[in-house]
From TrEMBL:
Key words, A-Z: Membrane, Transmembrane, Transmembrane helix
Chain ranges passing through the membrane: 7-30, 103-124, 131-151, 171-191
Pfam families from the UniProt entry: SUR7 (PF06687)
Species of origin: Dendrothele bispora (strain CBS 962.96)
InterPro entries: pH-response_reg_palI/RIM9, SUR7/Rim9-like_fungi
Alphabetical list of Gene3D superfamilies matching this protein: 1.20.140.150
Protein name: Pali-domain-containing protein
């Protein structure tokens, strides 16, 4: 397959892998790449989870000190006001699915390794793996959306805290990684289609027409002279 079409696909997969890998680390190791953030305007909340990441939530005190739960698969966060008469809990069932992120990252890495090959069959498998990675990334992004919507809905019901929930950088990096995986898969498919069309467009070989000799009396006369 022509490397003109393979190189963009490799670049797309590499960028998607880097972004997905960073998001998969997330909190508590990379707190800047969380999925959702909750800001409390009234500062009247008892909460352990201003930031919702892949492996744990993190909270910030008024002095800016950051505290995170121990990293693990699935976590719960309770939010209440100072009087504790209004409480909500984000259960582990809403955060356990975030583990799809590292799975998608692993599939993207496999697709990237396969895309380095020049063999047509391996390149086709790389294209299919890219679409599989896009599907897993789409599932991870859907889980991110569900978590964001649920956190936003639940924190609004807590009285006297003025909660404002927003999407975080990790949320949008996942979306960009999804687009890059789709572009990588389509690039390889179009390259394979272009190569197939170019192979079928070679001009047919032309055969030289036999020399036509004159017939009749003049033809016999000329052959006798020769």
């Amino acid at each position: 397959m022509s490397r003109v079409f393979c190189i963009p696909g490799i670049i797309f997969l590499f960028c998607a892998f880097v972004l997905s890998f960073l998001v998969s680390i997330s909190t508590p190791f990379l707190p800047a790449l969380d999925i959702a953030r909750v800001h409390f305007e009234n500062q009247q909340a008892l909460v352990f989870g201003d930031q919702f990441g892949i492996w744990s939530p993190c909270s910030y005190s008024n002095e800016g000190a950051r505290t995170c739960q121990a990293a693990g698969h699935g976590y719960s966060v309770s939010i209440s006001n100072l009087d504790r008469d209004s409480v909500t809990t984000i259960g582990s069932s809403w955060t356990r699915g975030l583990a799809v992120h590292p799975v998608a990252t692993a599939v993207i890495f496999i697709a990237l390794c396969l895309s380095l090959s020049t063999h047509v069959t391996v390149t086709l498998i790389s294209s299919l793996t890219s679409f599989l990675a896009a599907l897993l990334t789409l599932i991870a992004f859907a889980i991110d959306i569900a978590l964001f919507v649920f956190v936003r809905h639940e924190t609004r019901d807590v009285a006297d805290i003025g909660a404002n929930t927003n999407t975080a950088p990790g949320f949008w990096l996942t979306f960009v990684s999804l687009l890059l995986c789709l572009l990588a898969g389509c690039t390889v498919c179009f390259g394979r289609r272009r190569d197939r069309m170019s192979d079928a467009s070679y001009p047919a070989a032309t055969t030289a027409a036999p020399e036509k000799r004159p017939g009749g009396f003049l033809g016999r006369f000329r052959r006798r002279r020769n």
